Amino acid sequence: MKKTVVVYGSSTGTCQSIAETIASKLGVEAIEVTNFNTDVVAANDNLLIGTSTWGAGELQDDWYDGVKVLKDTSLAGKTVAVFGCGDAESYSDTFCGAMAELYNAAKASGATMIGEVSTDGYTFDDSDAVADGKFMGLALDDVNEDDKTEGRIDAWLEAIKPAL
Description:
The protein is of the alpha/beta class and 164 residues long. It contains five helices and ten strands, in the order βαβαββαβαβββββα.
């Protein structure tokens, strides 16, 4: 596996816990998005980036500066996968929608995007992070479906490892 980092933004600790689980399973470092900059991008071939979704589909607050890094840095030659946390019961119409902003920013900066996940097995009404019947990355509802989190992480990692 090439040099990989997991970058997350977390307000309540849920996305941090998921990021740390992903990083541990890969044997790589997880860093807060507040520490994400062009040096981190330059030092890594692969970026696994994660956010929670707030309100009507907004990014976790710390990611607004992180998105600027994604947009202002060439990601050509980099591989990026996105993961997100949401609450499909309380926010069924914006479930994990903030992933779309991360995905679109990385893709527009030239990254090779991996890690799309089928919406099969999820219960939600709508999400900006769905295109062609797939989430743009790994969507997790650790609030209502915490019993599925570990299996979904494992399946996602198995699917993306060959590209890392």
